[in-house]
What we know:
alpha+beta; GTP Cyclohydrolase I, domain 2; four-stranded antiparallel sheet; 4 helices; 4 strands; elongated
Amino acid sequence: MNIALQYASVSLEGLEFFAYHGFYEEERKIGNRYSLDITVEAAVTKAAENDTLQHTINYEILYQIAVEVMKTPALLLEHIAYQIIQKVFAAFTTAEMVEVIVRKHNPPIGGVCNASKIVLKMKREN
Length: 126
């Protein structure tokens, strides 16, 4: 039977961290609450056919990547997302696209704001 290559989106949503990121020194001292969503598009035909974890995106590894990146203070949310994406591409050769959403809860903008958010999406160049 001829079938097309299967792609899947594997996501972790609502990962929560208390971390020490921010442009202002005070933010890096007192910390803040952050949340992440990570979505990875990858070819999963072998995993689907053979029921094998090594041929898909292991979300435990995704979580460990997020934990590692969130431990290192950064000035910008964009940098956090970029670091996660680079590590995901390095960990999973089948990953074709990675999207990371980073939210900083109650950002210091001088007014009421639930969260600031950035969305960074990158595609593997072949």
